[in-house]
Write a structure and sequence with these properties.
By secondary structure, this protein is of the alpha/beta class. It is built from six helices and 17 strands. About 25% of the residues lie in helices and about 20% in strands.
Length: about 325
């Protein structure tokens, strides 16, 4: 049976985690098209460190399971993100490829030096499968999410993305999690799940593109691709992909108890730009034409709001803007 776990996700958990981070950002301006990574300081003590386990490395084949009905536009947002990591890096900056380069440098290369795999990696879109007939129904348990991942028949070192449509209820969605990642250690593959929250729990799982369920009711940011559900899902999915690659089997990069760990991006929950603090995403870029907020450019003209990456060497949260 595949092991599984969830690391973020309700807005409450984001706020709680973010409240533990002491943010000290020097330059709040976002007018530069490209900026060096900014760092938010974290308390010393229990740091996010390498525990000796394997990471995903080399060629990482990615399979996508679309559970429920997704429009071509929603699918393109996800596919272009995956391909932007290494296969089709955008020429504009800041880019999705730069975000991935931080993960590779800070985590995967260091793991390679320690004998845990990593180093040079290529993320390759291997397959896509659509289950528009809801073969397991419209209410899923976490075991069924794992079952859907296994149904993609992933090989060793692969990553499966299970994405659920807006009308699919997943155990704990919006109340205790917005996504999770897990693995089948015996088969050697990892998987990540995220769902479209626009109908069910936008305040918990589509922030900052929707008003939070509680707390400061500031005006939400405009979704960069004009789709609150898909753009919110991408925020969670990016975090889960980072965790699945850098801590696939719960024994590589993490902080705290391994079954409730902070990881590469969840250690920086709610941080998307310089000057971020709980309830404020930070100084991010704004598309002059659409008003959409973003911090990374990808393939196909898509833009993304990607979570900060915790840099254990500093230590601090690295943002692209």
């Amino acid at each position: 049976m595949a092991s599984r776990r969830g690391f973020i996700s309700s807005r409450a958990l984001q706020m709680a985690a973010a409240a533990l981070i002491v943010l000290s950002m020097a330059r709040p301006s976002l007018c530069q098209q490209r900026r060096e990574l900014e760092l938010a300081e974290m308390p010393t003590g229990d740091q996010l460190t390498y525990h000796g386990g394997a990471v995903l490395s080399g060629d990482i084949p990615v399979s996508i399971v679309w559970y429920g009905s997704f429009s071509p536009g929603k699918k393109a947002i996800v596919v272009d993100f995956i391909e932007s990591l290494t296969s089709k890096p955008a020429s504009a900056t800041p880019s999705v490829a730069q975000w991935w380069a931080t993960i590779r440098k800070v985590y995967l290369s260091n793991a390679a030096a320690a004998g845990g795999g990593g180093g040079d990696t290529r993320v390759l879109l291997a397959s896509q499968a659509a289950d528009e007939q809801y073969s397991l129904g419209k209410s899923l348990t976490l075991d069924q999410v794992s079952q859907l991942a296994a149904g993609a028949a992933p090989g060793k070192g692969a990553l499966v993305l299970v994405l659920t449509a807006a009308d699919v209820v997943v155990e704990g969605f919006g109340s205790v999690r917005c996504g999770l990642h897990g693995a089948d250690a015996g088969a050697g593959y990892a998987y990540a799940w995220a769902g479209d929250a626009e109908r069910q729990c936008p305040g918990q799982c589509a922030w900052p593109f929707a008003r939070p369920a509680y707390g400061p009711q500031d005006k939400p940011l405009v979704a960069p691709n004009g789709d609150v559900g898909a753009d919110g899902m991408m925020v969670t999915l990016a975090s889960m992909v980072a965790g699945a690659v850098t801590n696939p089997f719960r024994d590589a990069y993490y902080q705290g108890e391994k079954d409730a760990a902070l990881e590469a991006c969840t250690a920086c929950a709610g941080v998307y730009g310089s000057g971020s603090y709980p309830g404020y995403a930070g100084d991010v870029l704004v598309d002059k034409a659409t008003g959409g907020s973003y911090n990374a450019v990808g393939a196909g003209g898509h833009k993304y709001l990607l979570p900060a990456v915790y840099d254990a060497a500093k230590p601090g949260c690295s943002t692209l803007v």
